[in-house]
Amino acid sequence: MSDPLRFFVPADSLRGDEISISGDAYHHLHRVLRCKPGDEVLLLDGTGECCLVQLRQLQSRAATTQLIRRWREPEQGLPLTLLQALPKGDKFDLVLQKGTELGIRRFVPVQTAHAVPQLAADRREKRQQRWERIICEAARQSRRSVLPVLTGLLTLDEALVIEGDELRLVLWEAGSIPLAAALPQDPPKGVQLLVGPEGGFSSGEMEKITAAGFRAVHLGPRILRTETAGLAAAPVLQYLYGDWTIPPQHGNPNQSEASQ
Predict the structure, then answer these.
(1) N or C end of the chain, less CB within 10 A?
(2) Strand extents, DSSP E, 120-190
(3) Cα separation of 228 and 130, whole Å?
(4) pTM, whole model, 2 decimals?
(5) Chain segment 6-51, per-residue pLDDT in tens
(6) Within 10 A of 106 (CB to CB), how many other CB atoms are there?
(7) What is the spatial distance between Cα 249 and Cα 239, in angstroms, rounded to a whole number?
(8) Element (H or E) spanning 83, and its range?
(9) What's the first-to-final CA gap in the chain, in angstroms?
């Protein structure tokens, strides 16, 4: 039996046994995928709550469903935060998409001296919405049940005071330590990975970064693009400390709690 289709929906809509699907999720399952009454779909609230439902009625703007079972799938593995200096154009779209697939837990876009010019407030809001859609679709495709966190655009000073992670690394071509030499044997509680812009960090910024406890590391003799560097380091961290030993979920929760 094939896995059920997956959709992220607002958390409030998953309360009760009769769940309604509307908005973008309904448009996609009804207008694009042509789902029919009797089909089963998996609804996710983005925090780990999962509801397997059966479609009952498909109306003009919403579908009614019957709950089959519900369970939770908490995020496992390494809490990895990517602090990414905002690159030019739409390169950050790629970082968000592939970073979500690789299990990054939190994305922090950072404004730096050599990054793109400061975005106007209206453009920033539109980009934030587009970025959130990219994360949602990448999480759905990669079968993540918990959506990564996306902060608003922060200044470097604001990003450097984010708390909660034990190991802090900054990818820097002039860093004298290879990545492997900076990684502890025991798994850290979390990792913050800071990646600079196309033009690199200024000397003043690097002083602030290292003063904030970030260790400067390099990834060998080749210079990677800003949109590639974090995506190259993340799999190394996931392999060593993350959840790569856990098999994929296939929508068959053996430990689920059946609805009453």
Answers:
(1) C
(2) 149-150, 154-155, 167-171, 177-178
(3) 20
(4) 0.90
(5) 999 998 889 888 899 998 888 888 888 888 999 999 999 999 999 9
(6) 19
(7) 18
(8) strand 80-85
(9) 25
